[in-house]
Amino acid sequence: MKPDTTTAMQNLIDEVRAAMPFDAGEAQLCADTCNGCSLKLLEFLDMELQDWEQKLQDGVKPSFGDIHKMGKTCKKVYMVLKKNGLIDE
Predict the structure, then answer these.
(1) What's the number of CA atoms in the CB half-sphere (13 Å) around residue 63?
(2) Average pLDDT over residues 60-88
(3) Nearest one of 88, 74, 89, 84 to 13, comparing CA atoms
(4) Using H for helix, E for strand and C for coil, what is the string for the chain?
(5) 24-73, pLDDT tens digit by residue?
(6) Any idea what DSSP says for residue 56?
(7) Neighbour tally for 77: CB within 10 Å
(8) Collapsing DSSP states into helix, strand and coil, what is residue 23?
(9) Half-sphere exposure of 1 (CA within 13 A, CB side)
């Protein structure tokens, strides 16, 4: 059985929080290669995630489009962080 959109968005948020290096220090984020500002991207993504976490707490039901957009944004940030050497697979 597929989850409802609220559960799907929460699962996405949980997966992103676990996969991204939000707790990395500025020195680690701004070292070596830079194909995009990792620090600013993580700050932006954190704000987006916090916004959706608050919306979910307030009872807002996300649409499939909202989930798709969030997933696409997360994937783009993930790929930049990977290029910058901050994500190991």
Answers:
(1) 3
(2) 91
(3) 74
(4) CCCCHHHHHHHHHHHHHHHCCCCCCHHHHCCCCCCCCHHHHHHHHHHHHHHHHHHHHCCCCCCHHHHHHHHHHHHHHHHHHHHCCCCCC
(5) 666 566 666 666 778 888 999 999 999 999 999 999 999 999 999 999 99
(6) H
(7) 20
(8) coil
(9) 3
